[in-house]
Structures are given as structure tokens and as C-alpha cells.
Write a sequence for this structure.
């Protein structure tokens, strides 16, 4: 490095603050990040909210509501996802800038952490699902798009019922399980069947549905996925096709109409997401999952969720951190996607 | 049990809800607990706040502000207490009813979680202490009593500076260490010396100060406590005197004037509070500590804190749970104490 | 020590095996412990069963059945006790000799681990309770006394319904909560109310019921305990009375008729039992709890349980170990009690 | 989706249970899974056994015996694998359906968890190995194929001695270490040498042996592997060749004669298997390891094991879960392999 | 506080460093603590050694050698104590000042961490014990008193053989188990029998031996303790007698002749010492144990140890911290005891 | 395998020790490993040092000094890296043989663990950096190359100032963050900016600097890297280019002049390195990172470090194990690199 260059660098950079440069996107990002009085907020300070967004007592006036759904009565094995929203709220340092889409989602939409869905009873799965549907119908009536943190996967059925009421949605679904099983234990509302119920209710379009990461002994239960016309990408398919081909396939399947994005953290290998109720060895890596989501840029997202985070099984908090990052990717897709 | 009694019980209790009875205190407590629409709030739902209190963006109009002070630049050994406020907020099921004082603190005062003290720099201990002092001076100017969650114990010095400005306060101090050490490592602001600084600044009255639970190798540093006239209850004293005598001594020392209550969780045995930076074997049990605090009922509390919760060292969350309970006890002392 | 004594010791002890001595009780204990071929079983080998007892596919011919009840749909906060039976089975080195009663319980009764109560649905609390009642009615019909591992405390109501059908039982109940609350969240079957239901069904005699270790904010809910005539020993009472007086009181209350013993691990301080769903600071120590149970020697025990072990919150396994020890104490009371 | 399709789906699927479809393999799988009375077994209920298989007091009449070998006296560093069998038994939700081979292993063979090898002494490595050899000789004499869970890797030597007595076996060996070291610390029986001993005893054919995943500082010890003609796939080789080529190489090396499959969990990266005694950074992923095993379909498996699970170092239970899945893959190879 | 006093305090204390005061003991302590160049050593810096003592390559010239004995081949259940020395070395902030004896042990004796006993084989229990005996015989020949960190309790037998060669020692023994069992599993060298062997070898005087904290199912094995004349304080005795009476009894039993002090961390309740191989519910608290040791002040200590620390079971490091504190208490007894 | 071959194998190998073979490299390695008296050192014995190297009180006469830098005052989020050196020292079984370079680093250089950099104050970031610079200037003056274990990444700036004083160094930098940010919170010395400061001070040549693994929201801050001419390999680049191309690029960028190697463990995915302060999902795998480092063989290494290990967040110790392996790779590059 010649001395002139060093001088130039010194002249320009020796006394600048954290946000240097003239890139207008970054400048705006910097402004979005900084608080009014010049103080940067500590990552670990204040009342914890999803993605560090403001907490809003009401959803009125919002474009996007980030909602917790602390309900896990639908699990078949290990409970705990009722604590998922708390765990994801507590993760620090996610966003606000999106490195691939080069933008700050919260600068593009009025978004807030609106708290959790209120429930009439912590003891009644079917009633909880009704409470959820009613809540999301309210969001939809106000034109607010939801971004949700479960809770177990049974919550996605009432969400789809609310969002797909007028026209069935497409779906990009990352999971170890297709979740299209029928009734057992005297209920159809368990976390193994939401997408079957959604199809049968006409709120989810199986032809525009792709399920990615599927594996494990439960594979014996997914006849409905195939019978209804869903596209199922088993892990063997994933490994054979490669990431780029899977992304292309997903875009081809869901098309340009509105879709929902649903991520069950057990789609990831248990090493990346131990904190969940029904782990299956041999799943996606965090790198693959994040790239998959980023590959959806430009699609119309009616809503999205990340579910099945059970922090009791997550001593490193890796699962919650990954879930928070996924939430941020979904937030970015809903706000910056068009820039793609 | 004769059948008539059974009939009477059935007649009265068979169809009642969770809150039965005619006791006016309990009825009011029940009302305080219930939300407006008859739904009980789930312990694990919503944005986590201290003691489940509402989050207030401003301190105006409050009687009591519960404040987080996420700063641990004053520690001598293990850092981590900067995450103390987050950890204590996340604990569920503390209060709202106080079983010994038979009342609901939040029914007696306008209280809220007002977030955390804002800092200019996460890298400068002395500056952080100035930020804290300024913040608490603001609370005091508005007539708001503070209830604080640290952070390391260095935070109590600027709090006392703000609260004791006009008249030095008395102090009930539970800790393994007297924290009256002088300078070392080129600073006097470390967490081993706040109470020395407060005395030398004239905001803490050593004659009305009692320090309880003291033990360990650091005992060689506490000359100032004795020289200034503080009452020091070493653990050997505690074991010899017994709980009731210690409570009586504390009340005798601090008298009827306003006091501050400061609880360092390392006053408890590491078994009860592993999540802290400078644990010392052989400390108080949770039962003893809670009884000690309850024994202060009726005293004038100008403010209180619980400090040195480092959740990184707390795999069971026992430390955070105990700290949250202590916070609730302090809240109760500040609201229900007069009922004693 | 003179040389003659040393010679005598050498002569007698130099070549003996682990079980020396002529004490007939110990000799029988040794025989009970040893396997037929001279091999001692490793504590960590084999299919894990409760207390290392044989696993029995059928309850026929048993005196005592140790039963798992992996159901936690009744919890109000943290789920997880559905994994309690697995966790307690996995603990090694409990028994077989009882050091205070000086005997080997399994030498005095035909006892086995009979597996877990079968459930029709993991999603329906009320149905689960019916399944439990039916199962225990079957045990009772065969003259088999049950020793149960929960599961949450809601399971004790159907157990009492089965066991107290002909004559209401007395109860020694260790817990942080009286569990005599009424309905909320549209159900009366939650884990906060089993003993109220049992009284109202006439299967539990409140006059012969003592509840020990009660504390915390939920104290506002226990009117029924007092109204129905139960004896409630709050933690303050316990600390004031002392252990011996509490034991005497318990024996006085329950008298000589058959009783049930129910231990919720949250009766212990969270330090001793972090692995539970609704911890309350300031509870019993393990030493106190075990002494309490041993103090019941000689009473008629119709059945007993230990409940609310949630191993997800128990990184040291201390909770499961304590629960396994409690289970053994209860087993000892049911077999060696008469020797007291 | 047109409305006719929706109607057809509703007609067929609206009222079906968990197991729909006409696929005869799946129907049989469903029958294998369901218990007689229509109740599905909870994943977390009952006495824990390997893969949820029945516990058999005797090996008579079995095709396959799943055996625990809780012995870790052969480790060179961190002990703990003596608790491996207990840990693997405790994992829920592995199988019963194999998603790639499309079948239910336990439907194809009489298989049971037969408990653990009994040992004369927990203190004598050489004696333990004799006990193991004797036990497996008994299995072999009865025509029962063993599937074993260690224990440390020293256990594989006596197993091979028993199984390869008449004709040396081939071997597929996944591990970070070749385990063909000579004597040190006055013994040749440590866990670093079983395959050397087996070759020198003529029970293992080095020409039909492949070792996969080898890496780390211990690489200096593996001359015997090369000298004896084993095929060693170091991790660099693995990364360069790719998964498919490694599978092809393995099949080529071992040929069509009977082989043994031995999986040391330290063959996997410590991230996938932290719970082991001698972790080595840079190993296989779970996806690669499972695919490797599935690639062996159709080979003749005389026996198989998974070893070196030390649950003390496995706070997420990821290691035990992976080991249980490997056990299931081996079980599938021994029963469904021919269907490939 | 009047203003004059405040002025006096300010005059004297405003500018002093951490070590103020004129107390000659404290001044000397301060000098002992400070490093030459005025820098205080960080608690967490440098190569970890026992109690922060210097590491000595040779024992020559030492008064006291702190020795690690990383051997756990004698355990009957959970291994892991081989990592005990590493775990205890890693604990920071123990000493250097002793708060009760008011002195700095390392100022009174040439003491160092001399590393660990070298072993010929990590696989041979009997050989390891010979290695230990030889090593301690060497210490004794050089007049160096040993302070040891186990390892399992089997190590104390060879230590006593070396130290008690000329005259049998007395013993203060804190433990859940008497460790006077005979042979089983073909060895007498297991961790359940060191004190029997020591008596039979004439190196331990049973009449001058007291065993404190005994409890649990293993109580059936302690005939030898009683037969040989040891004083056994069962936990029930301890609770009945109280701490002061137990200390008095211990002093009476061991008298003025040289004694050995041996502390098995399982003497403490598993809550205080979860990190151990054979935990027993219902043991000593840290407060009681430390007071017990301090009660031995003035006795002649020929050597001391703390054993059975298994850090794999100690997620909070509470066990290691307690063990380090015990080590420090023993060090203080060996150096400052005479000041009592 | 024919019988002759078996005989030959037996003849040669039946009675050999752990180190067989005639390979001169391995023979020398074996000699380097063995201690003088034929005893192999246990992995878990003795005072823990970096890579098991001898502890040297002085740096005189060394070629390479392995230094701990326990300072984390520069972190922006989670503290804890002050305990990094202790954690890395405690890892057992790293080296001494390097499997890819086929040699024993410690046989090629006089190397030792020289303890930690002494600091004047644990409370003053800027002063700590001056202490570090002074210490490393001393090493450089003595011709000792440093190999360092942080501490947070702010420590690399003063190290570079000392090492690059005469001629700016090249840099291979593995990290999630470029660490070329300007001032914030009133300081430029935080862990987000060391490489900017080093360039502006003329001790680091940006044209010979490559930064690999960059990702996450902080990407908005790295203008300086681009402006100064550094080569930045974002994770997307890494995934697109593949490992071999990245290695080639790195070699091309840094050329043949002396370079520094700096590895922040957060360059790895949080799954591989959870124990760090600012984790970012989607990073390198351990396999990739180790291969990257090995790809630098033959380059001139003036010094190297591994930083940001925060063991409080590392329940499996995977992070510390990976860091210790990285340290060993760096040690190998500095000693065996020329053999490439």
C-alpha cells in the first residue's frame, strides 16, 4: 500500500463514526438504526420484543404485525413451544439491516410486536385454534399482514383459515414433516395435520404448495400431500437436486399469486435446532435454510411464521437464534422482496 | 366428614371459579389479577416485563418505576450482569398477590416497567455511572420511587447519589461483600466499593447501614465499613444470632427514616444463586433472605434494587427466579409495608 | 488401637465380601440385593425401571404396582411432567435398603414397575383423567396398592376417586400449593384443584387432610382448604413450628385410618427441585422432606405418589433424584412402616 | 385447485384417521405401529427400551437381539459411555417405519431389547471383554444376530471374536480413529485397538475392511490398518471423493460375504455428536453418515453396533438421538436390506 | 452522621487503595496478595492452578504440596472424577485470605501446585493405587505434607498407607458413605472401602476416626466401622445433635495426635454437590460443612483431601467451587490452625 | 486373507506398543510424544496449558510463545471472552501430531505457554490495548513469534501494531464481521474496528488482506474494507466459489510476504461455535475452516490468533475444542508449513 493511499484513507476515515460512506441505501439504513439523540441502543437493553421492534398495544395503523402464539397443545411428543415467543423475543442482534437484500425492513413498513394472541383457555386445543382464527381474521380485516412465532404447528391451520378465506394461498413449507396427517387420539387439530385441514377447507392450494426437508419415520403418513398434488421435496431429493434447483422448483410451484411461508424449525437438522419437540436427524443446515428463504425474493407474501421452538431443549439458544433470523428473513421478504 | 358438611361444601363450591370467598382483600386481589374480558393472562404470554407490570414509555404519573440497569463494567471477575434485567423480566408467575402481607402491590401504586437506563457508551464505567445518576435524579425530581434490577453493584452508588442528595439514606444491604473497598486498577467505581463512595459523598448514613451475609476472602477489605460505623453481620454472626435477632437488629439500626434496600444475589449461597459473578460458598438460603426482607415491613423505603444476576451461569434459572421474587418482595415493602 | 484388636479385625474382616456381619436384617437385605449367580447388578445397566424393580407386564399377583402417569395437560404454566416417569426410572442407586427403617422394602411385598397408564388421547385432559380413574379402579379391584409417578398434579384426583370410593381417605400432602382452586379457563380439572374435587366427590376427608409447605402468590386461592377443614401448614408455620411439631401434627390430623400420600416436588425449594412447572422460592429442603415422610412410619398407606417432575428444567437431575428417593420412601412406608 | 378436486379430496380424506391410503406397505406399517385396542402408544410412555422394542427376558426365539454393553473401562480420555445404553433407550420417536427402505423393520424379524451384557466386575477391562465374548457366543449359538449399543469401542473386539469365529467377517467402520493401535499402559484391550486384535485373531478380514471418517492427531497410530490391507478413507479423502464414491468403494471392499457394521459416534463432527469421549473436529455430518449406512442396503449384516455415546457431554441429547437413529438404520439394514 | 465524622472519613479514606487500614494481619495479607509491580492478578488469568498457587515442577523445599490425583477407576457408578483436579484448578477467587482464621495460608508455608500423580496405566486400579502410594511416600520422605484433590475415594487408601506408615493416623471423614465395605466385583480397592483397608493395614486408627454425614441405602454395608470402633455420625444424628455438638465430638474422638482430613463431596446434599458419582439426597449444607472444618482449628493435620468431584454432572460448577473452598479450608487448617 | 499374511501380521504386530512402524516421521513423532520414563501422559492430568505445551515463566529462548489475552472490554454485546484462554487451556487431546502436514509442531520449535498478558486495569479498554502492544513489542524484540488466544477481537489491533511496526503485514482473517467499523459509543477501540485502526496506523496492508465468512446485519458497516482495498469473501461468495477457489484466492491476495492469521470463532456457524459474543447464523463449518487454514501451508506466518471464545455460552465445550484445534492448526502453519 503506497503512502498516498494511506493518507487518503486517513483523511477520510480517521475521524468517522460507525456509519461511514456515501451509499444512499446504507445511509438510510444507518438513520433507521440510530436513535434520535445519537445514542445507539444496546442489544441487550429494554423490554424484549420480536426483532427489537417497538411494542404496539394495538394493531391499528400497522402494515405488519409480529404476533406470538404461545400454544403447544397440539404436540405429539415434547411440549414446550408455548415458550417459543418469549425465547425468540429475547434474542438480540437480529437485523435491522438485511445483508443480501441491502435494505432495512423496518424502514419500509409500519411494523410492531403486537404481543401474543389471547386465549380463552390454556387447556383446550380446539378452542385455542378458534381464538387464533378470530384474531387473524381481525388482522386481515384491518389490512395488517401477520408474521407469527409459534407455538406448535397446529397454529398455522387457523392462520390460513383467516388469511385464505377469499382465495386459497400458495405455500412454501420448510419442515421435517408434511403435516398432512388425519385424525388420531380423537382429534384432527394436532400439529401433524394443519395443511390437510387447510386444503380440505379450501384455504390452501395444494397445487401451489411445496414442502421441503421432509424425512424420518413419519414419512408413512403423507399420502394426502401426494394425493392432493403438493410438491414434496424429501431430504434425499434435496441432496440430489441441490439448493439452486430446489429454489427454482419452489418459485415454479408457487407462482406469482399470494403465498404463505411456514417454517417449522425441525426442518433443520437437530444440530441446528435442538430446541424443538419432534427432532429428526439429517435435516437442513442453517445456511441452506436461509438461502432457501432468500431465494423467494420478489414473491407475494400474505403472511409467514416460524414454529415449534421449544427453548427447554435449547441450552445454547441456537434454535431461538436461528428462529429469530428466520423471522427476520420473512420480515425482509415481506418488505424488501420487491427490490430483488 | 359428615354428609351435611359435604353438602354445604358442594352447595357453595361446586360451581365457583378460581377466586372464591368473601374476603375483601382477596376479592380485590382477584379483581386486580383478572383482565377485563374475563380472560386470565397466561404466565408465559406477551412481551416480558418486570413482575408482569405494564410497560410504560414514560415515567410521568408513576409512583414506582421498575428500571433495568444493564451495565456490568464494574465487575472484578465474571461479567454477565448486563443481561440481568432481561433474565428477570423473563421469569413468569411472580405475584401479583403477596402471601404474607396479604395484598396486591400493584393495586396500591401506579407502577410500571419503564425499560432500562440509557447509556452513552457501553465501554466507559464512569460515564455509565453518570448516566445512571442523571436518570435517577430525573425520577426523584418527578417523585417516582425506583425499584432497580442490575447490572453489577457499582450501579447502586449513582442511585444513592440521586436519592440521598438532600438527606443521607439508611441502608439494608444483603450481600456476601461489604462493597466498601477503595480504588484499585485505577478506578474507585468498581463493584467492590459503591457504599464507601456513597458515605464519602454524604448520601448514605453509615450509622443507619446494616450489611448482612458477609463472608469469604474479601473480608480483608472491609475496614471502611467498621471505621465508618456500619453494622456488619458476617455469616458466622448470622448463624449464631438467628434470623429473628438479625431482623430486630436491622430495624434497630435503620430506624424510622427513609432507607434504601440493596440485595446482591451473591449474599445467597451459590446453590441458591449460581448465576452471579463472584459467588461465595456458605451464604443465605432463599427462605432466610425472603424472611429477612419481609421483616422490614413498615419501614420507609426510598428505593430498592436487586443486582449481580448473571444468567450465563444460571442453567436452572433459579437465580433469576429468586431475583424476581426479591424484586416482588421489595415492591411489596414499598406498597404494602404500612399494613404491617 | 492395640495390636490384638487389629488382629481380631484382620481375622474377621480381611477376606470378607461386601456384606459382612451377622445382623439378620442386614443379611436378609444382602440376600435381597444379590442376584442369584453372585453377580451384583450394575446401577446403570439394563432397561430402566422405577427403583430398579422388575418390569411386570401384568398387575396380577402384585401387592404394590409402581405406575407411571405421563400426562401434563393440567399444568398452568410450564409443561414437561409428561416426561417425569421416564426421568425417575432413569435414576440409579435408590434403595434397596432403607437406612432408617432398617429393611428392604422389596423383600416385604410383591412389587413391580407395571409401566404407564394407557391413554386414549394425549390431547384431552378430561378423558385422560377418566382413563386414570379406570386404571386405578382396576388396581383396587385386584387388591393392588398403587405407587405413582406423575405427570402433573391433576392426576391425583382420579386416583383418589378410585381409591377412596368406599371410604374417604385421609391425606398427607406436601406441596407449595393447596391445589383446592375452582374452575378457570373453562375447566375444573387443571392441576390447581384436584383436592377440592376429591372432597366434593366424597373420596377425600378434609378433616383428615394436612397440606405442608404452602407458600407464594397462589395463597390467595386456598379458601376451600380452610372452609372444608383441612389443616394447612404454610412455610411460615413450618419454620415457626419446627419439623418435629409438624410431624406430630400430621399424625394427629390423619389418625389411624387409611391415608394417601401425595408429594408435589414443588413443595421443595426450587434449588432442590428446579425441574418442575410452577416453582416457588422458599420451600422445604430435601432433608426436611425426607424426615417428614419418615415421620409417617406406621400409618396405613392406601397409595402414594410423587408428581410434577419436569426433567427439561433439571440440568443436574437433582429433581429426578429427589423424586426417586421420595418414591422409595413412600415404598418403604407401604412395606416397612409397621416395623416403626 | 378446482372445486371438483377439492370435493374428491374431501370425500376421501375428511374423515380418515392418521393412516390413510391403500399402499400395502404403508398399511402393513400402520398395523405394525398400532396397538391392539386402537390406542397409539405415546412416544414418552412406558419402560424405555431400544427403539421402543419389547423387552425380552430371554433371547430364545429371537432373530435379532438388541443388547446394551454398558462398559467404558477401555477409554483413553473421558469416561461415560457406560451410560450409553440408558441414554439411547430413552430416546423417543425413532422408527418404526424406515422412510428410504419403505418398510417396518420390526415387522420383518423377531427382535427385542434383551437388556445388557452381565459383567463379573465393573473394575476389570479384560474380564469384561471375556464376559462380552461369552455372551455373544451364546447369541451366535442360538442363531440370534446382535445389534449392540456401547460402551466404548473396546467392546467390538470380543463381539467380533464371537461372530467371526468360523469365518472372518468384513467390516464397515465409521469412526474418527482406525482403532488399530497396539498396547500401551500395559494393555492391548483399550478402545484404540479392537480391530487390530480382531485381525490378529483371524476373526476380521482386513482386506474386506473399510474405515471411514478418520482424522486427527491419532492418525500417527494407524500403520496396522495400512499394513494389514484395510481401506482407510480419511476425511480429506471423503471430502475429495464425495459421498457416492465412498459408498461405492465400501461396497466394493466388503463384497457379498457377511460383514459387521461398527459406528463410533466420534466419526461424526463433535457438533453432531458432542457426547463422546474423544471428539475430533471436522467429521461427518448426520446427513452423510445416515446416507452412508443406507448405501449399504442389500449387504449381509452379521451384526452391528453403535458405540462411544457418553451422555454426560450431551446437553441437547443430540448424540443419543443420532445414535438411536443409527441403531435404527442398522436394524433396517439387517431386516429390510434385501428389499433394496 | 455528623459532618465531622464525614470529614474524618474523607480525610482518611478518600484517596486510599483497596487495602486500607493499619491492622497488621490485614497489611501482611495485602502484601501477600499483591504482586511485586503493584498489579493485582486477574482472577481469570494465567495457567490455572489449585488455589492460584504457583506451579512447582518439583516438591523439593515445599512445606505443603497440593497434588491432583486424576483417577476414578474405583467408582461403583458414575465415572468422571478423573477430571476433578482440572475442574478444581479452574475455579477462581478462592482465598488467599481466610476470613475466620484471619490470615493468609500461603504466607505461612511454602506451598505449590505440584501437578498430578503420574500413573503407569489408566486402566489398572490396583496399579494406580501403588503409583499413588509410591508418590506420597516420596512426599513424606521429603517432609512435605500433602493436600490432595481426587479422583475417587479409593485414592485415600494409598495416601494413608504412605502417611500412616510409622504411626496410625486419626481421621475426620465427611462423606455420605463410611467407605468401609469389603470386596466385591473381585476387588477390595474400589471407592467403597479405603478406610477398612487402611485400618486392616494398621495405618488408620479406628478409635480416632469419626465419619460424618452418613446416609442412604449403602448404610447396610458399614458393619466394619462399628466393629472397629469408629464413631459414625449419621445424618439423623447430625440433625439431632446440632453442629456444635458434632464439632465437639470430632475433637474429642481424634484428640491431639496427627490426623488426616478426608472430604468426599457427596457428604454434602446433591444440591450443593451435584457433580459427583454417587449422590445421596439429604446431606450437609455448604455452611455446615465449612463450619465443621473450621471447627477443627488447632488440630495436627498430617494431610487432607477433597475427592469425588465429577464436573460432568456439575453444570453450575457449584461442586467444583465448593471443593475449591474446602481445599482452601484444609490448607488454612494446615497453616493457620495453630492461631485458633 | 490368507493364513500367511495373518502370520506375517502376527509376527510383526502381536507384541508391539502403540507406536509401531518404521516411518521416520512417525517415529520421531512418537518420540516427541512419549515422556522420558515410558509413561504416556494422561490427557486430563496436570496443570492445563495451551495444547499441552510446557508452561514457561519467561519468553526468553522461545521461538513461539502461546499467549492468553483475557480481555473482553471491547465487546458490543455478550461479554465472556475474558475466560477464553482458560477454556482453551482446559481442552485435552489436541495434537501433538498434525495429520495433514505429517509432523509434530512442538518438535520443530521451542514453544511454550507463557501465561497471559498482564494488565494494569481490568476496567480500561484503551489501557489494556496499550498493555497488549507493549507486551507484544517485547516478544518481537526478542524474536519470539506470538500465537494468541483472546479475549475479544479488539486485542488484534495492538498485536498488529507491535508485529507490523517495521513493515505492514498481510492478513488472512476468518470472521463473520470485517471489523473495520469506525468509532461509536465514544471509542474506536471496540471489537468491531481493529483492522481499520491497523490499516490507518500503517501496520496492516489492506491490499494483502482477505476477510472470509462475512455475513449478517453488520454488513452495512464494512465500507472501509472495500475502500481500502481488502478482499472480502462474503458467505454467499464462499458458497458460490467453493473452498478450493477461496484458498487459491487467499494465497493470491496475501502473497509471499509475512502475514498474520486471525480467526474469530464467530466466523463459524453458531452451531459449531455457540460460545461467542456476537453469533451470526449461516457460517463456516469446522471442516471448511480447518481446510482453509491447512490451505495456507507454506506461507510466512508472523503471528496468529483465535479470539472471541466465550465459554459461558458453550455448554458442550464444542467452541473451545474447535478453538484449540484452530490454535493447533496455526501452530502447525508456523512450524510445519514449509514442509508443504
Amino acid at each position: 500500500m503506497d503512502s498516498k493511499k494511506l493518507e487518503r484513507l486517513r483523511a477520510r476515515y480517521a475521524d468517522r463514526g460507525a456509519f461511514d460512506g456515501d451509499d444512499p441505501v446504507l445511509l438510510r439504513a444507518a438513520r433507521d438504526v440510530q436513535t434520535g439523540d445519537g445514542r445507539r441502543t444496546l442489544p441487550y437493553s429494554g423490554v424484549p420484543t420480536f426483532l427489537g421492534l417497538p411494542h404496539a398495544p394495538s394493531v391499528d395503523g400497522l402494515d405488519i404485525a409480529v404476533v406470538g402464539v404461545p400454544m403447544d397443545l397440539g404436540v405429539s411428543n415434547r411440549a414446550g413451544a408455548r415458550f417459543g415467543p418469549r425465547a425468540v423475543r429475547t434474542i438480540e442482534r437480529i437485523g435491522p439491516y438485511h445483508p443480501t437484500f441491502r435494505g432495512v425492513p423496518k424502514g419500509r413498513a409500519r411494523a410492531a410486536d403486537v404481543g401474543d394472541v389471547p386465549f380463552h383457555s390454556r387447556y383446550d386445543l380446539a378452542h385455542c385454534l378458534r381464538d387464533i382464527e378470530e384474531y387473524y381474521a381481525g388482522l386481515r380485516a384491518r389490512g395488517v399482514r401477520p408474521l407469527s412465532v409459534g407455538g406448535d404447528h397446529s397454529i398455522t391451520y387457523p392462520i390460513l383459515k383467516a388469511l385464505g378465506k377469499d382465495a386459497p394461498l400458495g405455500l412454501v413449507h420448510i419442515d421435517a414433516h408434511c403435516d398432512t396427517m388425519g385424525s388420531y387420539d380423537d382429534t384432527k387439530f394436532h400439529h401433524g395435520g394443519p395443511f390437510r385441514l387447510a386444503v380440505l377447507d379450501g384455504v390452501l392450494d395444494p397445487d401451489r404448495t411445496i414442502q421441503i426437508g421432509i424425512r424420518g419415520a413419519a414419512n408413512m403418513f403423507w399420502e394426502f400431500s401426494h394425493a392432493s398434488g403438493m410438491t414434496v421435496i424429501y431430504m434425499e431429493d434435496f441432496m440430489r437436486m441441490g439448493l439452486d434447483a430446489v429454489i427454482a422448483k419452489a418459485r415454479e410451484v408457487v407462482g406469482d399469486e399470494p403465498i404463505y411461508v411456514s417454517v417449522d424449525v425441525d426442518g433443520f437438522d437437530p444440530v441446528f435446532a435442538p430446541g424443538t419437540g419432534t427432532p429428526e436427524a439429517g435435516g437442513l443446515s442453517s445456511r441452506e435454510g436461509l438461502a432457501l428463504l432468500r431465494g423467494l425474493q420478489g414473491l407475494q407474501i400474505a403472511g409467514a411464521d416460524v414454529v415449534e421452538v421449544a427453548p427447554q431443549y435449547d441450552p445454547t439458544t441456537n434454535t431461538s437464534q436461528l428462529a429469530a433470523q428466520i423471522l427476520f428473513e420473512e420480515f425482509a421478504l415481506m418488505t424488501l422482496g420487491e427490490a430483488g
Notes: DSSP finds twelve helices and eight strands in chain E.
